[in-house]
Design goal:
Elements: E1 30-31, H1 43-51, H2 65-75, E2 82-85, H3 87-99, E3 105-109, H4 115-122, E4 126-130, H5 139-144, E5 150-156, H6 168-176, E6 183-187, H7 203-208, E7 212-217, E8 230-233, H8 236-245, H9 253-264, H10 266-289, E9 293-294, E10 301-305, H11 314-323, E11 326-327, E12 329-330, E13 339-343, H12 347-363
Parallel strand pairs: 1-11, 3-4, 3-5, 5-6, 6-7
Antiparallel strand pairs: 2-8, 7-8, 9-10, 10-13, 12-13
Helix pairs in contact: 1-9, 2-9, 3-4, 10-12
């Protein structure tokens, strides 16, 4: 007897490792490993989720009408150009399954979000890595790797885990250099946090072109990671193809209800962004004052590089912090042996982290 064998390429996938959620000690535990919102979801979203319990006998609205209308109104978009998904992960995966087949290539940058190689391989295609320059995606390096086999380019903007971003001008240059048959996937999971005049999530670029899509999520600034809701804005032809491939009821009743309420609660979203506006620069400054190298970030997280000295490296720091109830994200899978990523937490966690790292670096 021969055992069932997955399609070629499936067993080459390095399984995605999510952020840890347990600590080794600490009076209170702060999970700072998955870029979740320290403010949690809107109370209105929570109430809508609970009220949805009365509707569980029914299938969800497969077209996600109310949510798409709320998003269209909020962002000034045409409702027909939006598709919702079970997290933006599902939409990125759908893009891969809809556009890639065996023999195709898809490009992502060196430190791009780790799911890209997973979903490209899962679709039977080959991930092509474009090196980064100074921990930023490099437009020329991406364009140099385009061949007739390339079907998709994934760009996280801002990128996780570096926190760096490309200006809209650079994204436009990237798009302008792509052949028309290549789709540029702008993954804007952290767009809500970015306060830079030269940044745009990609709405205009999508509106003007047949080969650009933008994905967004409710998991970060909206504080609804547990519900799994994301959305994609794209040209009609691509939306039509994705709708054929997706499951008919891919976003649950409760997820749709909570997400609609979340979109309508602009005050809560603003509060989450304002919290980040205060604590992202604070933490960057304090960590640098300890002598640590921190990559400039426009997201809700920071990449911290540790000294290359015995007792002071990232794995030791991760263990030390874990004993104090602070869960950070090891970056080995991304190729950063000596860095940790930390999500911006509540004030108490941010202050605890700085105090704990001062102790770690001083005592080690
Ligand atoms: N893109 C990026 C860059 C991310 O960091 C994440 C979450 N880690 C996602 C997409 C997926 O988010 P979700 O599926 O929760 O919408």
């Amino acid at each position: 007897m021969t055992a069932p064998t997955p399609r070629p390429g499936i067993l080459d996938i390095a399984p995605y490792v999510p952020g840890r959620d347990t600590a080794d000690g600490g009076a209170r535990v702060f999970k700072l490993s998955s870029n979740e919102s320290p403010l949690g979801p809107s109370e209105k979203a929570r109430a809508a989720y609970i009220a949805a319990a009365d509707d569980l006998v029914r299938y969800p609205d497969g077209g996600c009408w109310a949510l798409r209308e709320a998003l269209a109104a909020r962002h000034g978009l045409n409702v027909d150009n939006i598709i919702c998904g079970n997290g933006s992960d599902e939409l990125l995966t759908l893009m891969a399954h809809t556009f890639l087949t065996h023999g195709d290539e898809a490009i992502h940058s060196q430190y791009g979000f780790l799911m890209y190689p997973v979903i490209i391989r899962a679709a039977g295609a080959k991930p092509v890595v474009a090196p980064e320059t100074n921990l930023r995606a490099d437009v020329d390096a991406i364009l140099e790797r385009v061949t007739e086999k390339t079907k998709l380019v994934f760009l996280a903007n801002p990128n996780n885990p570096t926190g760096s971003y490309l200006s809209m001008e650079e994204v436009r240059r990237l798009h302008a250099g792509l052949p028309e048959h290549v789709v540029l996937v702008l993954d804007a999971a952290y767009a809500e946090y970015v306060k830079r005049n030269d940044y745009e999530a990609g709405i205009e670029l999508v509106s003007q072109n047949a080969n650009v899509v933008m994905t967004r999520t409710f998991s970060k600034a909206y504080g609804l990671a547990g519900l799994r809701v994301g959305w994609l804005y794209g040209p009609a032809g691509i939306i039509d193809a994705l709708n054929r491939v997706r499951g008919p009821f891919n976003v649950s009743v409760a997820a749709q209800a909570a997400a609609v309420a979340a979109v309508e609660d602009a005050a809560h979203l603003n509060a989450a962004v304002e919290h980040n506006d205060v604590w992202l620069p604070w933490l960057t400054k304090e960590l640098r004052a300890l002598g640590l190298e921190v990559t400039d970030s426009v997201g809700n997280f920071l990449l911290i590089h540790f000294p290359d000295e015995d007792g002071k490296r990232a794995p030791e720091a991760e263990r030390f912090l874990s004993h104090r109830g602070l869960i950070l994200r090891g970056m080995k899978e991304y190729g950063f042996e000596n860095a940790l990523r930390v999500s911006i937490g509540p004030e108490e966690a941010n202050r605890l982290l700085v105090a704990a790292l001062a102790e770690f670096l001083g005592a080690a």
